[in-house]
Request: fold
Amino acid sequence: MVSIEELIFLCFLSATLLFVMFHIFRFRLLLTGLPRPARRSVGMLPLLAVLMPANSALEFSVAQQSRSPVGYGLELTGFIVLAFIIVNLIWLIRFSPKPQKKMIILALGAHPDDIELGCGATLLRYKVEGHETHGIVFSNGEGGLHDPQLKNCNPRKREAERGGQVMHLDSLTVMEFPDTKLNTKQEDIMRVIEECTRQLHPDLIFTHNRHDLHRDHRAVYLATMEAARRVPTVLCYENPNTPSSFQPNCFIEVSLYLEHKIKALKCHASQHISRPYMEEDLVQSLARVRGGQARLRAAEAFEAIRFTL
Ligand SMILES: [Zn+2]
Reply:
């Protein structure tokens, strides 16, 4: 038999569990980085919150009689769910990767969608693991607008900012250097990167690669090489127009973060009609191929200019 005090306590416990659930889902970043078993156990919390008071209410209603099989069933299920949650949380605490040192990471892109395409999932993974992530986009991408009506009110800056929010970047700066003419502003871009590295002291920079056929991308790569000479690690990412001479030697596992990369890319709505490389299956396939090359489920691939462990 359950006393009225116990019933009140169980209702209080259920309300607390629902409150915890609400906060966990509110801080989706936490949930994003959880391995699948831990995500499953978090998903079980509402079930427990329903089962426990249901069991108590049943017991309370049949207090004068012997306990029914339904009551035993509910109680047993409640215990199994609780044990499942505890085992998974122990697993999470035991095996979750812990960053040894907080890193400051800076991602550079010529156009508003370059960072997402090249290293979007990696940036989110680093953020979830407790590092600090920043981004600079050097042009507002007006050259990539095919709809003449959009030229008057270029939406690409807003799209980049929304993409940055999906990747949970600590900061994103979108600059106004002339799109498709960044090679004429390489000196200025170099100064921007130099100033930024002086202020942030990044441990790791992501930038375009030297093989890229787009002159804006190459301009950002060359400016980075000059400005980031004191940065310990510089990794070059690939874009859809990167030629096959790109030979990655660094792979970062991103299977947990791929759906968020696709979500960030979807923020660039103005590009989806005219750019087949933004398509979801293409992004998934490239990540699978790169993952396969490094015996991982899915990965983003980089050419390391400098890699400091
Ligand atoms: Zn680009």
Observations:
- The first strand starts at residue 104 and ends at 109.
- The chain has a mean pLDDT of 83.
- The radius of gyration is 25 Å.
